[in-house]
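FIELD: query
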Amino acid sequence: NAGTEADVYISVYGERGDTGSRQLLRSQKPKKFLRGQTDIFAVEAVHLGHLYKIVIGHNGLGSGNGWFLDKVVIKDPITDLDYIFLCHRWLDQGQDDGNIARELTVTDASTFPGRQELELKREETWTAEKWKFQEGNTLQFYNRLTHGFICLTPDSRVDALGDKINKYGNLF
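FIELD: result
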């Protein structure tokens, strides 16, 4: 249920202006916006110069209108540059923050390619793992070098004696 049947719109912003809201109508695929699918659209506009942001969203109509958008890549045919706009979020009134439109800024690939994608993966990992660090939990790590356990207790003490047995029955 990560695809959408709603009408999707995009506005592209560059140093020389913007496209205004444009509906993405004709994909190179027979059915557009399916889960896991990459759709390709041609959007005609005057040359906007260097792009810096887009606004993308849908009208929220139709069954299954929620949509998980990974990223948008815009290829400038004049400069042959690719502009990457990472989203990796839901555009769905019943998911995430409930927004069906997102403002996305261009990824600065010149400083560190993949930096924003790496940050998104870090955030995903933290979301999945943060329960371990909730108040009252004792964390126990196995040290392969000493073949013992290191414990981090709820009162912030560290037991690093390297006991050879698993005291708490949990291993992270």
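FIELD: remark
The chain has two domains: 8-130, 135-171.
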